[in-house]
Predict the structure.
Amino acid sequence: MDIIRLKNVKKQYKNGTTALYDINLSIAKGSFVFIIGGSGSGKSTLMKLLYREEKPTHGQIIVGGINVAKLRNSKVYKLRRNLGIVFQDYKLLPKRTVYENVAFAMEVIGATKQETRVKVLKALEIVGLKNKIHSYPDQLSGGEQQRVAIARAIVNNPKMLLCDEPTGNLDPEMSMEIMRVIEKINDEWGTTVLVVTHDERIVNALKKQVITIKDGRIVNNKEKGTYDYENA
Ligand code: ADP
């Protein structure tokens, strides 16, 4: 079953720049997909269309059964509760502990204290940070802070995890650790994962599906792929 489907999707920004041309793409439920490509090729735009930060100029986008292109602003929350989103910068609340940072996402949806506790501990366990629940962000390494951000993204058990350059600020060793955490979430929870990255080492080590975007077009889409040095 496809959890994401794009049909003839075009995105032209208001200033006239076309970021994506005629994108057709299906992603099966439970997949782990790397999206690679040079700077300005359209990777972030593709992600933004999926979480409805941007709307397509043309075409159809289905994400978790929701017709995203047609979705009203007042219904975007229905899409977002199916999604966890992770960025290059961790966007943690500096005056909250690790526990509170992750719990915050649960408070927003009105969960009980007991339910919050169970889910926050489960999320911190899978990212390997259960021993740091009382620490503050500035007491953690970059890799640990990103693991908190990942725990926060998955605490409500979303169907999909979208990561835009999650290791962009990390050294090679921490980058690999983060990717192993994301791989574990995909393996153990069955969460569909999309990762935008420039990191060839990671892509070559994990041997997942690799989609290459060049100048706004998908030029390569391989199962168990490696880094596409020609196009990315
Ligand atoms: P990538 O993530 O691969 O670096 P982007 O999706 O950010 O690429 O950008 C693709 C193209 O769209 C680039 O030419 C970029 O300058 C342009 N672009 C991105 N965001 C905007 C925007 N908000 N307005 C106008 N052009 C944009």
Summary: Helices lie at 43-50, 76-80, 98-108, 113-126, 142-154, 172-189, 200-206. The two ends are 29 Å apart (CA to CA).
